[in-house]
Every structure is written in structure tokens, then in C-alpha cells.
Amino acid sequence: MVTLMGWGDRPVWVRCVAAAYVIGFLEGTGWHAYSLAAGGLHAYSYAPLLIQLLFHALLLLDPLVALSIVRARPGGPLLAAPVMLADLVGNWDTEWRAVLAHPAAYLRPVGLLPITLFGIFVLLTAFPLRRALTSGGDAARGPWRRRPTVEGRQGQDLSL
Asked: Where does the sequence pass through the membrane (predicted)?
């Protein structure tokens, strides 16, 4: 069986979380590319200048995060968390007044709600995913599945 970047030996939860990251960040890339193509450099003119720059930078940062996750780099989740946090802050800052005026309008499957849910997911899973990618799978197994060391205590694999 051919595996992509060593993902075949990873636990299912690690592969599922990584797949969600890749799908989410590539969807963000697509949205920012569409916005730039449709509106040009002024696609985000409704937002303050720093947030406009952030949204344009996400066109590069989102695929960089996705690539680092596909390549199983431990730094990928650590890059994903601040990128997603910045995206959340930018989106909430630009939409805050509208949310206060019409809160029910934002309870729909597009826009601020899915961005917020994905952002919370990334922020909650970044460190566990990093640990799983760093350890090569030992921490991903969980403490209840580690193999005993020579002294009989729980620890690292000693298999040859």
C-alpha cells in the first residue's frame, strides 16, 4: 500500500484532524483567491487597512498551512493556530456591528459561523496534532497504549 508522506501509520484521529485542516485552509485559499479575482486589490475595502492586508496575506498563508500539514510537519499546526486566530479577529472585527444589529442573520452555513467553528476547532486541536506529528505516533497512541520500557514502566517504544 502506498502512503502519502507517512500518513498510513498515523492514528485515525490524526488523519481526520489533518484532513479537516487541509480542507478548511484550502477552502480559505479558494475564497481569498475568488475575492481577489472579483474585487481586485480593493476586494476588502470595507475593512480597515491592516485587516485588508491580512486578508490578502491569507492567500499565501492558507496554502502554506495546508502544505505543511500534508507534509506532516510538526510546525504546521503551530502555524495554523495564529493564522486562524488572525483570520477570526479580522472577520469578527469587520462584522461585529452587523452581528449586533442582526444576530440571527449570521446563523447560516456560510460566512462568519463556519469560519468561527473552524477557528475554534483549529485552536483546540493545534497542540494535540503537533504532539502527534512530532512524536512519530507514540504520543498519538495515548498513554494507555505505550509499550513498557525495560524497567516495566510506561515509556517509549523499544522495538527494534
From this structure: 12-34, 46-70, 106-127
Cβ–Cβ contacts within 10 Å for residue 145, how many?
Answer: 10
Number of folded domains that form the chain? 1
Residues in Cβ contact with 139 at an 8 Å cutoff, skipping those fewer than 6 apart: 131, 132
Note the pLDDT tens digit of each residue in 1-21: 444 567 888 999 999 999 999
Residues 54 and 90: beta-carbon distance below 8 Å: yes
> In angstroms, rounded to a whole number, what is the distance separating the alpha carbons of residues 26 and 21?
8
93 lies in which domain range? 12-140
Helices (H), the chain: 12-39, 49-70, 75-101, 112-134, 138-141
pTM for the whole structure: 0.79
